[in-house]
Amino acid sequence: MRLTFLLVALALLAAAMSEVEAMAEASQPPAQRPPLPATWASPLLQEHPLVGRIWEPATGAFVTAEQVANRLAAADVVLLGEKHDNPDHHHLQAWAVAAMAAAGRRPEVAFEMIPRDRAAALADYLEAGGDAAGLGAAVGWADGGWPDWSLYRPIAEAALAAGLPLGASDLPRAKRRQVAEQGTAALPEPMRTLWALDHPWTAEMRDGLLQELSAAHCDVAPPQAFAGMAEVQRARDAAMADALLAALERPTDGAVLIAGKGHTRPDRGVPWFLRQRAPDLANLAIAFVEVREGVTQAAAYGDLGSHDLVWFTPRLDDIDPCERFAEQLERLKPAE
Question: Which CATH number does the domain housing residue 217 bear?
C-alpha cells in the first residue's frame, strides 16, 4: 500500500515538474529577429510599388519578411542570389544570415567570390581572430574583379557576430580557364562523377544557359559562341554545390550561398546540382531583383529561373551595361 502511494506520488511530482518546465519554456521570449534595413542605399525608384515586396512565383502571391524568416529557419541550404554591385542586395543577404542565427541556426556562409584555393587563407585569417573589415584583403578579394569588399562586408559582419563559419566555394581561376578551353574534361573523372557533371542536361537547359550568357554580353555574338563559357558556368555551379554539401557534413547547421542570381536559379544552377546529389535536402533560393521603370507586375520580370522567392529592391543606376562595358564586349565579337 505504501509502495503504491509512493509510486503515485512520484508520478504526480514528475508530471508537475514537466508542467512547470513547459510553462517556463513557453514564457521565454521568442528569438529576436534582426530588423530589416531602415533605408535603401540604391537611389533610383525607391517609391516604385514593388520595392521591398517579396513575391512567391509558384503561388503568384506576396509574402512577408516574417514568413521569409520562418522559411530561412527551416531550410537545409539557402541560396541568396544578388546583383553584384547593388548594396541593398547585400544588406538583405546580411539580414537573412542574421535571421537564421536568431532562430538558432548555425549555417556555414559560403561565398561565390572566394575560390577554393583561398580556403586556407580564409581559415588562417579567421583562426587568428581576423574581423570582417580585413577579410577581403586576406583572401585576395580584389584579384577576382568583384565590386569592392565594403559592399559584402555586412554579410561577413552578420555571420561573424553570430559565430558562424565562413567558407570558399568557387573553382580556382586557373581551373576555370582550363575548363573554358577543354570543357569539363579538364576536371578529373572522379570529380566529374561526384559533382554530377555527367548527369545529362536537356536541350532546353543548355540552350537557355547559352541564351542567358549571350544576353548578358549584349548579344555581341550568337549563343553558340558562348559554349566554353557555359561549360565554365556549369562547372562552377557544380563546385559551389559541392562546397555546400561539404559544409553540411561538418559540425554546422545548414549552409548559405552568397552568389549571383544566375548561379542560384533552381532550374539549372547550383540548386539543380544539389538535387542530383541530395534530393531530400530542403533548399530555399531567393533572388534579389532591381525594379524597372513602369514595370509594376511581378510576373513581368522575365526569366527568374524558378527561384522560390523574389525580393524587389530599388535600382543602383540606369547606366546601360552595354555602354559601360563596350570596350570589353568589343573583344568578344567574332572575327568577320
Answer: 3.40.50.11550
- Rounded Cα distance, 208 and 231, in Å: 13
List the domain range (segments joined by +) for residue 324.
49-330
Confirm whether 29 is domain-assigned: no
Cell numbers at 266, concatenated? 533552381
Query: 90 vs 93, 265, 284, CA distance in Å?
Result: 5, 18, 17
pLDDT in tens, the chain (336 residues): 443 444 334 344 444 444 434 443 333 344 588 999 999 999 999 999 999 999 999 999 999 999 999 999 999 999 999 999 999 999 999 999 999 999 999 999 999 999 999 999 999 999 999 999 999 999 999 999 999 999 999 999 999 999 999 999 999 999 999 999 999 999 999 999 999 999 999 999 999 999 999 998 998 889 899 999 999 999 999 999 999 999 999 988 999 999 999 999 999 999 999 999 999 999 999 999 999 999 999 999 987 879 999 999 999 999 988 877 666 666 655 655
Question: Is 64 inside a domain boundary?
Answer: yes
7 within domain boundaries? no
Q: How many domains does the chain have?
A: 1
Calpha distance 173→145 (Å, rounded): 11
Question: What burial class does residue 172 get, using C-beta atoms within 10 Å of its C-beta: 0-12 exposed, 13-18 middle, 19+ buried?
Answer: middle
What is the greatest pairwise CA distance in the chain?
104
- Residue 70 CA: distances (Å) to CA of 19, 66, 257: 27, 6, 18
**Cα–Cα distance between 96 and 99 in angstroms, integer?**
5
Helix (H, G, I), strand (E, B) or coil at 67: helix
Alpha helices in 29-134 (DSSP H): 65-74, 87-102, 119-127
In a domain, 6, yes or no: no
User: Which residues is 63 bridged to in the sheet?
Assistant: 54
- How many C-beta neighbours within 10 Å does residue 56 have? 17
Task: Read off the DSSP letter of residue 30.
Answer: P
